[in-house]
Amino acid sequence: MRIVVVDPSRTVLKIVTRLLEAGQHEVRPFTDGPEALAHIKADLEVDALITSAELPSTTGMDLCHETRKLPASRRPIYIVLMSSNFDQSKLIEALNNGADDFIGKPPATEELYARLRAAERLAAMQKKLVKMATTDYLSGALNRRAFFERAYEAAAAALTGEKLSAVIFDIDHFKRVNDSYGHDIGDEVIRLVARAAMTQVDTLGRLGGEEFAFFLRGRGMAEAAALAEKLREQFSKLQINAAGNPVTFTCSFGVSEWEPGDSLDGLLKRADIALYKAKTSGRNRVVKSETPWGYDEEQPSTGIIRFATRA
User: Fold this and answer.
1) Does the domain spanning 2-134 belong to CATH 3.30.70.270?
2) Best-predicted range by mean pLDDT among 110-114, 126-130, 183-187?
């Protein structure tokens, strides 16, 4: 496990760190609560927090509370409060502020290991539940709800000036594949497309049927369009065997970029309209969107925005 340990005493930090490292855990030690919290927010691989009840610039209770408020859909965090005060009211306060466990300070070696073994069992179960709740069962991509949770986080960053682009794509003539070869082959096409796309992007979402989307933080239109073109070429070379018959397919892409004064719905609507243009102009192509003020509000769409506004 990767564990953040927080205590104002460097001696206690050294003792706990050595104990944890001897148990094959990765340790990130801090003497300051806000610094530890900033690290936990930035490092999504942190599995657990062990913090002293009293810290220089805040309290361990406050740190427990703020850590527990972090989005649990991204990763579960096991929180242990350390204190030399075993008063029952202190234990109740710790649990009420989000702690999962309470341990004496300095902790006894075997007790600490036993509590962390329990934490690992719980974390494994929680991670499995998170994956089930956020993953599309057929494709392995993010499901619609999880995708839009990530998208809103990206949009919040874009409001601060970070570049952001979005790509929406779907499988051309997918109904023809189902009608000609059966839904089991259609399902395999969806899985194959998703697996190939997820080698290039980590925010792929299945929005419904044969429609997928992803966004690229820190990258603009040109980079997004180049990646979409790379995927388009890759998909066109994929092949599935259906009772001795090779099945090939293509995909169409719409690309948009965040602009000043933009919104997530606006960003996705422009990508959706660009996808519609790709479909109506021949399919198997990448089309870049117009600026927020350059698209036609009456332009038909493929239905992606319906998903966006409901998410």
Assistant:
1) no
2) 183-187
Interatomic CA distance for residues 113 and 116, integer angstroms: 5
Name the fold adopted by 144-310: Alpha-Beta Plaits (3.30.70)
Give span(s): CATH 3.40.50.2300, the chain.
Answer: 2-134
If you write DSSP's letter for every residue of the chain in order, what string do you get? -EEEEE-S-HHHHHHHHHHHHHTT-EEEEES-HHHHHHHHHH-TT--EEEEESB-SSSBHHHHHHHHHTS-TTT---EEEEEES---HHHHHHHHHTT-SEEEESSPPHHHHHHHHHHHHHHHHHHHHHHHHHHB-TTT-SB-HHHHHHHHHHHHHHHTTT--EEEEEEEETTHHHHHHHH-HHHHHHHHHHHHHHHHTT-S--EEEETTEEEEEEET--HHHHHHHHHHHHHHHHT--EEETTEEE---EEEEEEE--TT--HHHHHHHHHHHHHHHHHTTSSSEEE---TTSS-TT----SHHHHHHH-
Query: Would you put residue 127 in left (φ > 0), alpha (ψ -120 to 50) or beta?
Result: alpha
pLDDT of residue 291: 62
- Residue 214 pairs in a beta bridge with 167
pLDDT at residue 129, rounded to an integer: 84
Which one from 93, 188, 210, 211 is the annotated catalytic residue? 210
**Residue 292's pLDDT is what?**
57
Q: Considering the chain, tell me which residue range(s) the CATH 3.30.70.270 domain(s) occupy.
A: 144-310
Let me know how long the chain is.
311
To the query of whether residue 210 is one of the catalytic residues in this protein, the response is: yes
Task: Provide the whole-model pTM.
Answer: 0.72
Model confidence pLDDT, tens digit, residues 189-234: 999 999 999 999 989 999 999 999 999 999 999 999 999 999 999 9
